[in-house]
Specification:
Oligomer: single chain
Shape: globular
CATH class of the largest domain: Alpha Beta
Order of helices and strands: EHHHEHHHEHEHHEHEHEHHHEEEHEHH
CATH architecture of the largest domain: 3-Layer(aba) Sandwich
Structural class: alpha/beta
Number of domains: 2
Number of strands: 11
Radius of gyration: 22 Å
CATH topology of the largest domain: Rossmann fold
Distance between the termini: 39 Å
Length: about 450
């Protein structure tokens, strides 16, 4: 890992390779373009708006993160997309219905210029969608080679210094780690043999890592959470991270559950349900895709509460998650949570949450931060799983043998301390020992 002045500068243009040109992607791209034009603020983005404390509190050093670490600037981002439909970013943004038409029209020239390339897609892995703009090949290895050709052409056309790929497409059917995923040689043979346990998202990840490009998994798919991808990322000294962007209901869980444990309050049950009507909702209406999402969402509370360590508080609590497709709601998801907790002497209490959120509005700044931070990690020669970015994921990846941290506040501390360490600043522990030494 490189530190301080040894980190390679963010010079030149950064290519952002986006898989999927749906609600999250168009909101992300349109937001960046609107901020560049000065007609919007980057609300929700740590890289653009958050500060970081350095040194002792008496020093009063709290620069913006963007001024503290050498991040790529928004003016240097160039977007490239793949999608199963031919609509350009302007047309897709209008259809997604997340942003106001007035705002989209103000960005018409910029968005219209972003036209997707044909995607690698199979209805077998996303059963509720039928793509009409897809690549053709005889093997999955050939699909990967076609993606690498797209990447090479884009890098040359835009004269790019670096690239990052992020998966912002739909949730695939549930796939478990198998022998074909265990190492790189078996995975590459599986690509040649069209192995059924190799999904399109894995083909994109392979193409990125083979092209010396970091990969971010924004969905709960298996994708890079396997031995083969970890091996390839390590071999090429590339950062990888995922999975499933942490936005609405799960964001609330990672805020509330740490509070319950911090105060030693017990939990009897947590019932969660959602309604949404965008493409994501339609895809998750399929039981096999929902299972992929369910596994991601269910794992969060268990890791935070650690029932094996606190059986009197959390043993055998009931946790249920439901997602319901409701077309009239569009991208404006509504989630309900009923939480049954108990306190002193076992007396029961209830908490009810009704969160009317906008999934893509919450996800877009997360996508931006991940792209910029992963590019920074690449320039700092940080390879493999980037656990310090777990702050942004529902089901964060962790090194083999380690549990994934889901407590939002521990995740935030880990993220900021990593930035401090990278820039050769003192790690903040909040012990305040200097105060006690003075008195």
């Amino acid at each position: 890992m490189l530190r301080g002045k040894d980190i390679k500068p963010a010079s030149g243009k950064l290519g952002v390779l986006i898989v999927g040109l749906g609600a999250v992607s168009t909101t992300f791209i349109a937001g960046v373009e609107a901020i560049k034009k000065g007609i919007a603020e980057p609300i929700g983005s740590l890289t653009q708006m958050a500060t970081i404390r350095l040194g002792k509190r008496t020093e009063n050093r709290t620069p913006l993160i963007n001024d503290f670490v050498p991040l790529s600037q928004l003016k240097d981002l160039e977007f490239f997309t793949w999608d199963i439909f031919e609509d350009n970013a302007y047309q897709a943004a209008l259809k997604c219905g997340v942003l106001d038409k007035i705002l989209i029209d103000n960005l018409k020239d910029e968005l219209s210029a972003i036209k997707p390339h044909k995607a690698v897609f199979s209805n077998k892995y996303v059963k509720k969608l039928n793509g009409t703009y897809i690549k053709k090949a005889d093997s999955k290895m050939e699909y990967a080679e076609q993606l690498m050709e797209d990447i090479t052409a884009f890098k040359k056309e835009k004269n790019l210094e670096r690239l990052v790929m992020i998966w912002l497409a739909s949730t695939e059917v549930y796939i478990e780690n198998t022998e074909v995923h265990s190492d790189l040689a078996k995975f590459e043979q599986g690509l040649k043999d069209n192995h059924e346990s190799i999904s399109p998202s894995m083909i994109y990840a392979y193409a990125a890592l083979k092209s010396d490009i970091p990969f971010i998994n924004g969905a709960p798919n298996l994708t890079v959470d396997m031995g083969a991808m970890r091996e390839l990322a390590g071999k090429n000294h590339l950062p990888i991270c995922g999975k499933d962007l942490k936005t609405g209901q799960t964001l609330m869980k990672t805020i509330l559950a740490p509070g319950f444990k911090a105060r030693m309050l017990g939990l009897n049950g947590w019932f969660s349900t959602n309604i949404l009507g965008n493409r994501d909702g339609e895809v998750l209406d399929d039981p096999e895709s929902f299972k992929t999402k369910e596994v991601s969402k269910l794992s969060v509370i268990d890791q935070i509460l650690q029932p094996e360590k606190y059986p009197a508080l959390y043993k055998d609590y009931y946790h249920k998650v439901r997602i319901n497709y409701y077309p009239p709601r569009g991208d404006n998801k509504e989630s309900w949570d009923n939480i049954d907790i108990f306190g002193w002497l076992g007396y029961p209490m209830q908490i009810k949450i009704n969160f009317l959120c906008r999934d893509s509005i919450l996800a877009a700044p997360v996508a931006l931060d991940l792209v910029l931070f992963v590019d920074l990690a690449h320039r700092a020669n940080m390879s493999g799983i980037q656990e310090w970015l777990s702050f942004y994921f529902k089901s964060p990846m962790a090194a083999p043998g380690l549990y994934a941290e889901n407590d939002l506040f521990i995740q935030q501390t880990k993220l900021k301390n990593t930035l401090r360490y990278m820039m050769e600043e003192e790690i903040i522990t909040h012990l305040g020992l200097d105060y006690y030494e003075e008195i």
